[in-house]
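Model it.
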Amino acid sequence: MEAIFSEKIAKPVGPFSPAVRSPAVSHVFVSGQIGQSAATGQLIGGDIEAQTEQAFVNLGRSFSDVVRTTIYLTNMADFATMNGIYAKYFKAPFPARTTIAVAALPLGARVEIDAIVREAA
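Modeled.
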């Protein structure tokens, strides 16, 4: 397994890699991303729109290669807003997705998104 790091996202706040590549499969497993600024390490804005947009920036992949995502929300009332932003990043066929309500996220984030990405051949 190979850990993947990037200067374009904030450093992990725990013992995990931002993404890993397994030579046994042709997928990259991207750790959950929140609306955290790579420049400051701080959470950007307080609204769901800004945090969802920044989480997608932090994922930093070609979204046409995403095969699965998991969305974590601290408030399911934010689902429709998050879903509208999510829809801007994907075209059919859409990746498989699960959305989970959670009590809290790192740094007080309102949304976290992880992804499994097919590697380009």
